[in-house]
Protein 1
Amino acid sequence: MKLPAININQSFEKEQRRNGSAGFTLIEILIAMAIFSIGILGVATMQISSVNGNANARKHLEASAFAQGLIESTLSIPFNNVADSDIVNADGYRVQMTIQNQSDLDADGTNDAMRILVQVFDPSGVERSRISFLKARNI
């Protein structure tokens, strides 16, 4: 008895058509990988931008803290002892204090108030903070 010849390819194709699953071709997989790669590159770019933004914010925060510390110490010393200064701290930040002008408010011949500018530069020389304030003589 002779068995009927079964073509394996035809049987497989019939099964695929019946189940509705023909699978993915190599080109479809490559296109999907390309689209996925473009998406991942976008996420990586956002991550880099976020890290740089956080570093920049940290530098501004540190500079403001150094400026605030100098302002507080300046306000606590006597009026006549205030002088220009240029300080480099341990982190490499340069804190510069400059007396911009002095005023005689009561016209008695002595200065009663001064405007002081505090600038903070990061280690690379970029100005990160600029604060101006008034210091008055205790009258």
Note: The chain has a mean pLDDT of 86.
Protein 2
Amino acid sequence: MPARFFATVQTRALAAGAAALMVAGCTEMPDLGPQADYYSTRTQARIYVLDNGDFEVVPPIGAEGAAYWCAASDYARLRLQADYAQDLYVVKGRAPSTVTGRIDTITFSLNGVPRAEEPPFIRRSYSFKPGDSFSVSAAESFCRDLQPYLLF
């Protein structure tokens, strides 16, 4: 019986030593880059803050136009404490992301952006040209257009 006891103690000591070495090797966290710093909205979009204060909306793949405005209003209201009457402006329309490399992102700002072209007589709500804008309240109304995500 004593031999079995010592074998068990040696096995546990080896396991504890191996665990300690693994933890010691993991104490220094690697730099994950700017992709690690994002805000996740209720529609599962990611918001990345850019250096100049603008923010980039990266919705789930295949998201419709309402998802961009909904995510932008969510971030503006909850993180930037913007008033419902504050306007959200498109800085850069659908283009490759400067942070993640995704090809379908839009950059927004709370600061006024000059229009790239005159708005048409009939306005398309999902137009993403520089200078297009909605109030935070109007952009938030697009959240109702989205189908809920069912997670099981």
Note: The two ends are 50 Å apart (CA to CA).
Protein 3
Amino acid sequence: MDLLIVLLATGSATMVMTIFSHILSWYTDYVFNEAHLLNLLFDNAKESIKRRKNINHINGWLVHIAIGLGMAIGLYFAFLTASLMNNLLKAIAWGILAGGLGIIGWMLLFNVYGKPEKTSLKPFFVQLVFAHILFTLVCFAVFKFFH
């Protein structure tokens, strides 16, 4: 049952986070969708002259969902330890922490592979924190619903 709860939380939270990123991308004309950015970085990493430039390739989505699963598992353990994530405020704090870790990860990726076009770092990092707060709140809601 726990695995199903974590998978449901992962799918729901990743969907909400992705919708949020898509809306901001549409509104600002920057690329904020994490899976799309991963695909652009994968293309930057290739040494071939012919680049795919397919921002919707499955590789970026698989990596993004796998990272989301890892985060949801960690959040589930935090949820099961009552004092770590037993209310909305603590869930928001975990989201801010996750967003900070996400910023560090993306900074490393951008340093290694370069920043893709139409990506402005400050707005991307700000939206990344809010996206992770949403992710964590959705996970918290799913966990709370089933416990």
Note: The two ends are 11 Å apart (CA to CA).
Protein 4
Amino acid sequence: MFAKKPPAENKSMAITRNSSAQSFSVLGTDLVVTGNLTASSDLHIDGTIDGDITCEALVQGESSKIAGIVTAKSARISGQIDGSVACGDLVILKSARITGDVHYDTLTIEQGAIVDGRLSPNSSAQNKADDAPVGEVLILSSAAE
């Protein structure tokens, strides 16, 4: 009736994070940074940055202002950038204002966005277009694959 129960297994509710797991940093609207930012993680920026940014992925809020070069594997831009942008997958939202050249692998621009500069595909996308025979259509998006 009152048998001794075996010890319960340790069922910890602790959440652990692998060192290889992605993390992100948020820079709020009240933050002003003067200097370059380099992050191995993703960045969400709502504040003002006066310097270059290098990161894995960038999400820029509508109220954010960046004066410098932005380099990322992917980016969603909805604020103001005064400087060039070099990105793999780039989404420019309708509230974005970019003054500078933009280099990309894939590009999406919402109607209403303003880009005052040259839009240039990165060399790998440009090489695919250069190799296409004249009179044939080359689809550069991965959606067709």
Note: The radius of gyration is 22 Å.
